[in-house]
Amino acid sequence: MSPLALTVRDSTIMLRRNLLHARRYPSLTLNLLLTPIMLLLLFVYIFGDTMSAGIGGGDRSDYIAYLVPGLLLMTIGSTTIGTAVSVSNDMTEGIIARFRTMAIHRGSILIGHVIGSVLQAIISVILVGAVGVAIGFRSTDATALEWIAAFGLLALFALALTWIAVGMGMVSPSAEAASNNAMPLIFLPLISSTFVPVDAMPGWFQPIAEYQPFTPTIETIRGLLLGTDIGNNWWISIAWCLGLTALGYRWSKAVFNRDPK
């Protein structure tokens, strides 16, 4: 069997293992998924009319259209926290040390975590998107190509955050520490253009909101689905995704190749 075939086989086995873990312990994924759904319902039904007026919209439906793309990105950030916790558990409970002694491809251990997490993030995005559609989100002007591009960007963003979460999980001494270390993945969307435009923020705060990975990605998704101006956000978003993916991969690989904890 060729090295590539061995890698695919072992990675598939590790992916199945991680998906089984997620199925047996759904509470973590469910709790993380509920955060963006609750925020979506809260901001639409409690603050929707006021926030719509603040962004120059006519009614609550305008704010739903504005809010949903940002909440999709927040969903990805939330679900990848579970990845950090899962990786930390593997590192601290000794299973990684056991895998090191087995005749399997070393990289398949991380690949299984990453692919499993990306799949869970995509499923979570679909669920949150379905809730958004149920309460009034519509994208009537987007073409099939724009929908595919938006979905591809969401998947690429999920891949980038997943590799960062894997690195966080590997350096954390416990599952609780991994959860705390990964909190920026939920906090950053709160200080991006998820809820209000960057121009509506205080001048001193605008660079913080603008020069981070979530804002250009959110604006790109809005442009693809709602027809708003994308400008330079599309290539800035892709650059962030590729940079974070490379950083997370090299970080995770370096930690994994060290001696076990």
Structure report:
By secondary structure, the chain is mainly α. It contains twelve helices and no strands. It starts with a helix and ends in a 5-residue tail after the last helix. The mean pLDDT is 86.
Keywords:
mainly alpha, elongated
The low-confidence parts are none
The chain-level structural class is: mainly alpha
Strand content: under 5%
Order of helices and strands: HHHHHHHHHHHH
Task: Summarize the SSE layout with pairings.
Elements lengths: L2 H22 L1 H20 L2 H7 L5 H33 L2 H6 L6 H28 L9 H28 L3 H7 L2 H7 L15 H5 L3 H13 L6 H24 L5
Helix pairs in contact: 1-6, 2-4, 2-6, 3-4, 4-6, 4-7, 4-8, 4-9, 4-11, 6-7, 7-8, 7-11, 7-12, 11-12
Give a brief outline of the structure.
It is built from twelve helices and no strands. It is mostly helical and about 260 residues long.
